[in-house]
């Protein structure tokens, strides 16, 4: 490999429009050598377009892609030495799984001595639990097996940057859990920057050294997984990330100083001191309150400090359950509890909101306060 193998992949001010759709709206980010940047956002957010621009398959209207000190903008896709695992797999139909994975190694400039190719490929097929399918053609594979064949073809390479677009989305839940750890281990031993795109916010938190949350072509937040989880920078991030994500309700600030109250139809919550101090600096009284499902708890209807409402629905998931609590006026709040609470739909109940369950946002800008 050249010395460029340990360079930073830097995207600056990328903008890409398809007709009326702004697929990328000023994306600036960088990925360090050996770093995995997980990029997550809803369908249509711009994840694939971002990968395609880095790979050179899409030309941005504005902005640039640099690898180390080298601008990539005028470098043809085939010469960028970027390994791209497509969401659509793009396997060669006439080649076996093994030969598909061998193909980029055999291409000129692959950089790995020929005698090592077979061992690298077979080890990777083993890692992805498809060694027994090595001689099959793609047409004889299930969706999840095809996806792993495409992933193997990307992982065997030593590219300048590795782009994985939804690499494990078609695997069953058990295999997805198992393989995401194994693949992440593999990526951490590399020198090249990696981008891993996924619509699953929790997958992003578990595989990324850092996580970028994208929505409508804009990066909403980029940071360490625990920052994204604990301190969502915008209402969009709060609504996307979590298990389940925060419930975000719009309302008004009432009162002054330390005695600020979040108020909306059916709900009046005195704000804890820290949040009240942040809220006091808000420029607008129109705020939204984020309520973190895992930090909320149910109580009796008349319990001290509890907000009143009723049980709207109850979903048991084995070791935890999700309760939807509704307040007068219809706003709904998700609660995640471990206990097998005996709840009845329609029953009156109280909601306890400890300070760490709450986050405030400016409704107009969507940004967290302060
Ligand atoms: P998904 O998770 O569904 O794959 P995504 O986050 O990868 O979504 P993109 O595929 O990047 O999203 O698409 C971003 C936006 O750009 C979408 O609104 C999409 O419809 C639009 N778009 C992407 N490619 C094209 C194209 N070639 N022509 C027109 N519109 C496009």
UniProtKB/TrEMBL annotation:
Keyword Methyltransferase among UniProt keywords: no
The entry's keywords: ATP-binding, Cell membrane, Membrane, Nucleotide-binding, Sugar transport, Translocase, Transport
PROSITE patterns documented for this protein: ABC_TRANSPORTER_1, ABC_TRANSPORTER_2
This protein's GO CC annotations: ATP-binding cassette (ABC) transporter complex, substrate-binding subunit-containing
UniProt key word Transmembrane: no
Boundaries of every ABC transporter domain copy: 9-241
Coiled coil: none
UniProt superkingdom: Bacteria
Gene3D superfamilies reported for this sequence: 2.40.50.100, Nucleic acid-binding proteins, P-loop containing nucleotide triphosphate hydrolases
Pfam family, one: TOBE_2
Single Gene Ontology MF annotation: ABC-type ferric iron transporter activity
InterPro entries: AAA+_ATPase (IPR003593), ABC_transporter-like_ATP-bd (IPR003439), ABC_transporter-like_CS (IPR017871), ABC_transpr_FbpC (IPR015853), ABC_transpr_MalK/UgpC-like (IPR047641), Mo/tungstate-bd_C_term_dom (IPR008995), NA-bd_OB-fold (IPR012340), P-loop_NTPase (IPR027417)
Family under the similarity heading: Belongs to the ABC transporter superfamily.
PANTHER family found in the cross-reference section: MALTODEXTRIN IMPORT ATP-BINDING PROTEIN MSMX, TREHALOSE IMPORT ATP-BINDING PROTEIN SUGC
The protein's name: ABC transporter ATP-binding protein
């Amino acid at each position: 490999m050249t010395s460029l193998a340990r360079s930073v992949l830097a995207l600056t001010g990328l903008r890409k429009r398809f007709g009326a759709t702004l697929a990328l709206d000023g994306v600036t980010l960088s990925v360090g050598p050996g770093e995995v940047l997980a990029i997550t956002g809803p369908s249509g957010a711009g994840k694939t377009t971002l990968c395609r621009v880095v790979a050179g398959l899409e030309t941005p209207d504005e902005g640039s892609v640099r690898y180390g000190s080298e601008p990539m903008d005028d470098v043809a896709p085939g010469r960028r030495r970027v390994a791209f695992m497509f969401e659509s797999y793009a396997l060669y139909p006439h080649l076996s799984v093994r030969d598909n994975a061998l193909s980029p190694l055999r291409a000129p400039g692959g950089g790995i001595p020929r005698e090592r190719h077979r061992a690298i490929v077979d080890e990777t097929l083993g890692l992805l639990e498809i060694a027994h399918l090595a001689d099959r053609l793609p047409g004889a594979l299930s969706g999840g097996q095809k996806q792993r064949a495409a992933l193997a073809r990307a992982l065997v390479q030593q590219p300048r940057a590795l782009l994985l677009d939804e690499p494990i989305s078609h695997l069953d839940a058990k295999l997805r859990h198992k393989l995401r750890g194994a693949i992440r281990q593999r990526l951490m031993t590399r020198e090249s920057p990696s981008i891993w795109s996924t619509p699953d916010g929790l997958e992003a938190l578990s595989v990324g050294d850092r996580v970028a949350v994208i929505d409508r072509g804009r990066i909403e937040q980029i940071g360490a997984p625990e920052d994204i989880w604990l301190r969502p920078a915008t209402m969009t991030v709060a609504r996307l990330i979590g298990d389940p994500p925060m419930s975000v309700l719009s309302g008004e600030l009432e009162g002054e100083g330390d005695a600020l109250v979040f108020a909306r139809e059916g709900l009046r919550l005195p704000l804890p001191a820290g949040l009240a101090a942040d809220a006091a600096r808000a420029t607008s009284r129109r705020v939204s309150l984020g309520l973190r499902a895992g930090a909320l708890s149910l109580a009796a209807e008349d319990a001290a400090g509890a907000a009143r409402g009723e049980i709207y629905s109850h979903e048991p998931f084995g070791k935890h359950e999700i309760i939807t609590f509704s307040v007068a006026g219809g706003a709904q709040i998700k609660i995640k509890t471990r206990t097998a609470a005996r709840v009845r739909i329609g029953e009156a109940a109280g909601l306890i909101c400890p300070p760490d369950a709450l986050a405030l946002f400016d409704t107009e800008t969507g940004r967290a306060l302060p």
